Amino acid sequence: MIPVAIIGASGYTGLELVKILTQHPEFELVYVATSEGETTIQQLHPSLEGVVTMQVEKADASEVAKVAQIAFLALPHKTSMGFASQLLELGVKVVDLSADYRLKLDRYEAHYCKHTDTKHLCEAAYGLPEFYRNKIKESRIIANPGCYPTASLLGLLPFIPYIKKDTPIFIDAKSGVSGAGKKLSSTTHYVTINENIFAYNPIKHRHAPEIAEKIDELFVTQVEVNFVPHLIPVTRGMLCSIYMQLENELDPIEVLESLYKDEPFVRVRNNPVDIKSVAGTNFCDIYATMNGNSLFISSAIDNLLRGASSQAVVNANIICGFDETLGIPQLAYVP
Amino acid sequence: MIPVAIIGASGYTGLELVKILTQHPEFELVYVATSEGETTIQQLHPSLEGVVTMQVEKADASEVAKVAQIAFLALPHKTSMGFASQLLELGVKVVDLSADYRLKLDRYEAHYCKHTDTKHLCEAAYGLPEFYRNKIKESRIIANPGCYPTASLLGLLPFIPYIKKDTPIFIDAKSGVSGAGKKLSSTTHYVTINENIFAYNPIKHRHAPEIAEKIDELFVTQVEVNFVPHLIPVTRGMLCSIYMQLENELDPIEVLESLYKDEPFVRVRNNPVDIKSVAGTNFCDIYATMNGNSLFISSAIDNLLRGASSQAVVNANIICGFDETLGIPQLAYVP
Amino acid sequence: MIPVAIIGASGYTGLELVKILTQHPEFELVYVATSEGETTIQQLHPSLEGVVTMQVEKADASEVAKVAQIAFLALPHKTSMGFASQLLELGVKVVDLSADYRLKLDRYEAHYCKHTDTKHLCEAAYGLPEFYRNKIKESRIIANPGCYPTASLLGLLPFIPYIKKDTPIFIDAKSGVSGAGKKLSSTTHYVTINENIFAYNPIKHRHAPEIAEKIDELFVTQVEVNFVPHLIPVTRGMLCSIYMQLENELDPIEVLESLYKDEPFVRVRNNPVDIKSVAGTNFCDIYATMNGNSLFISSAIDNLLRGASSQAVVNANIICGFDETLGIPQLAYVP
Amino acid sequence: MIPVAIIGASGYTGLELVKILTQHPEFELVYVATSEGETTIQQLHPSLEGVVTMQVEKADASEVAKVAQIAFLALPHKTSMGFASQLLELGVKVVDLSADYRLKLDRYEAHYCKHTDTKHLCEAAYGLPEFYRNKIKESRIIANPGCYPTASLLGLLPFIPYIKKDTPIFIDAKSGVSGAGKKLSSTTHYVTINENIFAYNPIKHRHAPEIAEKIDELFVTQVEVNFVPHLIPVTRGMLCSIYMQLENELDPIEVLESLYKDEPFVRVRNNPVDIKSVAGTNFCDIYATMNGNSLFISSAIDNLLRGASSQAVVNANIICGFDETLGIPQLAYVP
User: Where does the Semialdehyde dehydrogenase NAD-binding domain lie (chains A, B, C, D) (predicted)?
Assistant: First the structure.
């Protein structure tokens, strides 16, 4: 059993990490912390009462280093790199769920803030196993992708080799409200979003550069990515509808199947995908179809699992040389 | 008071027609029918108990002609043209909410079925007032647009003059469940669509040719329209997210405002639109923004009102020379 | 036209008052205020853009008195009595939507706070028209009932004459989230209440004494009232399920019909009631059935209309001698 | 590993049985059937694609007997007893999720239909482990309780010894829509129940006699049970609000804790319970409080798990002498 820690256990992704790690056959959750500390996990998350009982500490890197080999950071960006750099110096491997290690320095500083751990930034592996598996294996710091880039990249990357020159990609993403986190805002007030839907930060959302950077990194090709997120009246789940033009008509299901046939957590579907078939799991379900040279791709994930916590544990499995599927949720909540 | 009739009162759009027409200052609802008949409107729609009490007849064109000058048809396509042709022969003006008079003959027969009233088809005005006002004024048969084309066309038509040559339009439409009608299906079962979202008939939906035809008709330009409808867990309301490329960067709000500044039922918004601000009204709210040459347009309507029943009554107002806003709902249900 | 004012226009009930009063044939909305002021009504409520455009003032009783004959107060309790007492002194009639004038002094101070306008408290009429119509007519200060007491009292009062001696009443109330107001709280976060239901303040809720007091006042009988409110994942609407024991078996529909047959805003139903048939209206729909001596009553209202704003305007209609139904919403939003 | 079978795998409870049994450490799911057969489990339930792949047979008792020692029947009542009697004759133990073995003969025939397996009816143990554990251990036919009686009985049974003589119990139950099953009906149409709530079969629901019978059986006391189920806009989960009068005031939490302190699947809570804390688990969360002699109890379960499938597997664990918690879901889906 490898001892692991969670720093940032009060939010939704923290809760999901607790649920996965306490059931995992090879990880032992030995340390849980928040920035406040001094509580118990069942007080933070009453649904855990009688199932998981653990003290929640005030986060302290040196305490983590005494007991754990891997730390999962579910912290806000900026705070996260502070802990990550300390933990790495102390020899603890890090799976970071924040944005802090996802982008190259320039892009990060353009879209977030000044980076305070440039030393480790260049070492970080982007934790999308299907495309960065080998780099993840050798890294001690994993930048777990955001939910939007995860669903978008898994859907569109297979088609980058076929994209029509100089045409943009349009990503129309729809996210459940849990993606906005636990903090109170008028947007997440029930009355605002129930029976409603709206775009936010259209085209200017900071996930667009993350997606464009990874396309460039993997295919050495610069593509214009237009990303429009929408909030939908759903608790969890995310659907990305992706539109692009290809040089030639092709069978998109075949393209997907040839790339993903051996992937344990991508399911190529013959019909439009839905979020209920993946909510509760680490699966990304993908469907695609063409109209002439225009391609429509639909990809669905659980934003808190494949888009955060379960993908983080898959990355930890890879680091440790375990089977990627070990202890990873596969049974959807449906109905 | 002009006497009017509704044929097809059992569905959601029939109910909305009853509500608007019984409150209208210049129309008097004198005849209501369904294909079965022999009931009362308050039995069909228990919420009307104590407010509207009317006999519901078995639909009969000659009875309509005896009492009404205008008939609203809220019937399935194919059935609708049967009644419409009889009514027109008997001198009754028709506002048809079905698809039967929306398309040119070839397109109609390619996407629906054989047309049995080609005589009146060529007379029909497409009932989108902002673009077909003059033709509507002189017509006795109005093809009321579907909800998807209404929201799509109002959003994209202002930008057709600026579109980049040979580039497609992508419409990512999201509809509330009432758009699927009252009939039972596994798709409209609460457990299927609650906490869910999915595309259906992607790219192959028959509203794409309707949109393309109107673009061609108004701007004599052929544009590839890729239309992907999604079902969302919302009762009423529709949001269309439209993606296209323009020849040059421009101020899209200015384009919208210059075209719609005198339109009573289009509101150009400075922020992304939402469906709750229009649900319960005939408004179409529109927002647009650009990223380089890529344009994102967001347009929202109430699918049962602007997408069906209230737009139908606006068309009747135009036919009769009334102010277009007469008796038309403008106050959203929100919260 | 009688000039009227709204003080407290930023919340949900304030919005509903604006919608009703701007459509009312005999009231003219001349003054709208909030405690902050210096905005417009369409900025506070963007759905009103293009429909209602009015300046929103910083609330000032003497300004109200210059222009309006009746003021609707949609303010928090305590704040409300401050304004009400000033307005009354200045000759403005008041319909108060807060709790401040609903209870007798002792009860009020036991459940809320010290009362600072005892002078007018004893004059106040309880604004439940079906039972207090005559007193309302002669009053200049109306205490508009809360949503919970409105739905509860209309359901149970008809059966008080038949109640089994010394048996309690149990009220299981279910309220949509708009009843909790616009302020942010973890309870109204979408993720908390979506796919959920829970009781709050069970048995100890302060609406129980309000209900008990009115029973005592009307029937000179003291009944134990156990009131348990639940929050449900619905934006608007309230259902009260009431359980009590009667001395003898009787036909409860007959009891309801004989009492309410001439009431314009109570509909006695032959089947269990639902909230969608009343949402958007001032109706209270009621159904009742017995099992031996045990009675089940189900009553449904729109919590923001019959439970607040439209009932307030009915009370203003009564004060002014208008028909009670004048300008009052009767058409449900359904579907 | 004990080989087990599921007959009736197409519905929601069938799906939950598949999910639990394929993860169970001591049961091996060897046979799955529906009345139609000739499909695969992943076709019936697309979310299982890539996770569970099994042929689905046309149900045949003799085939079951060849391969399985225990059969779970998730069939409609009446159909179920047909299969159960055959299976029992063939030596297969049965956990029946239908109503067929829950009631004594007279009651069953009064509320359902003629019973065709009276031979085994008298042997059946009522599968509520907390109160029938010993009988379950020795039985070969278990009548798995319905969701309504499970939540109701666990909440109210601890207080039966203290009930005030000759006073009724009122149960106000709220069920998510999955409780109505997969079949299409106007009640389960999204537009009907979204943003709505209503009672159905009030006071006359056939779960009342089931509850009354078990009270009588366990405490030899006849109590009037008034049961009113409500449908709420939630997919899964059930909340029962129970009202009763006690002889004396007492500490209800103490009563609950003393009875349930060693129960693995009942959690006594100090605050009103909610369904999200139990959805996804076999837990029943219970809270209670008093007002004088009036008692309010609130109990919450997942209607498909504790109210059906996971309780069925707990019963199978008991039959086999396993730890009751073996393979039973304990981690709620929340958020």
Answer: 3-139
| Residue C141: half-sphere exposure toward Cβ, Cα within 13 Å | 24
Range of the domain at A177: 148-301
For residue B269, what is the domain's CATH number? 3.30.360.10
Among B130, B141, B92, B176, smallest CA distance to B268 is for B130
Strands D27-34 vs D2-7: parallel, antiparallel or unpaired: parallel
Return the closest-CA partner of residue B314 out of B255, B258, B266, B269.
B266
Place of tokens 């986190």: A181
> D331, A19: Cβ pair inside 8 Å?
yes
Give B46 to chain C, closest Cα distance, Å: 7
Domain containing residue B71: CATH number: 3.40.50.720
**Position B204 pLDDT exceeds 90:** no
B45 and B63: one domain? yes
Encoded amino acid at A231, one letter = L
pLDDT in tens, D86-123: 999 999 999 999 999 999 999 999 999 999 999 999 99
Co-location of A93 and A205 in the same domain: no
Nearest to A203 among B202, B226, B289 (CB): B289
How far apart (Å, rounded) are the C-alpha atoms in residues C121 and C77? 13
Chain B: residue nearest C18 by CA?
B331
From the centroid of its chain, how far is CA D177? 15
pTM attached to this predicted model:
0.98
- Say if CB B274 and CB B289 are below 8 A apart: no
CA distance B197 to B194: 8
Query: Going by C-beta distance under 8 Å and a sequence separation of 6 or more, which residues neighbour residue A258?
Result: none
Question: C297: closest CA among C202, C196, C162?
Answer: C162
- Examine the domain organization and report whether A140 and A153 are in the same domain: no
The continuous run of DSSP H or E covering B67 comes out as helix B61-67
Contacts of B293 (CB under 8 A, 6+ apart): B164, B245, B246, B247, B248, B249
Q: Is residue C110 part of a domain?
A: yes
Q: For strand C70-73 and strand A294-301, is the pairing parallel, antiparallel, or unpaired? A: unpaired
The answer, for C222 touching chain D at a CB cutoff of 8 Å, is no
B297 belongs to a structural domain? yes
Let me know whether C124 and C229 are in one domain: no
The backbone torsions φ and ψ at residue C142, rounded to the nearest 5 degrees and listed phi first, read -110, 130
Residue A191 lies in a domain: yes
User: What whole-number distance in Å separates Cα of residue A56 and Cα of residue A44?
Assistant: 9
Q: D190 and D218, same structural domain?
A: yes
C190 in A contact zone (CB under 8 Å): yes
CA dist B207 and C303 (Å) reads: 39
Same domain, D131 and D158: no
| Continuous H helices in chain A | 12-23, 41-44, 61-67, 79-89, 105-111, 118-121, 129-138, 147-156, 190-193, 207-219, 252-260, 309-319
Q: How far apart are CA D89 and CA C159, in angstroms?
A: 55
D293 and D173 housed in the same domain: yes
Same domain, D126 and D166: no
Q: Provide the CA B195 distance to its chain's centre, in angstroms.
A: 27
End-to-end CA distance of chain C: 34
Inform me whether the C-beta atom of residue B79 falls under 8 Å from chain A C-beta atoms.
no
Answer yes or no: do A334 and D276 touch at CB < 8 A. Answer: no
Is A284 a member of any domain?
Answer: yes
> Chain B partners of D177 at a C-beta cutoff of 8 Å?
190-191, 194
Structurally, how many domains does chain D consist of? Answer: 2
CA–CA min distance D310, chain B (Å): 20
Nearest to B33 by CA among B60, B57, B55: B57
Half-sphere exposure of C177 (CA within 13 A, CB side): 32
Per residue in B149-192, pLDDT (tens digit) is 999 999 999 999 999 999 999 999 999 999 999 999 999 999 99
A181, closest residue in chain C (CA to CA): C191
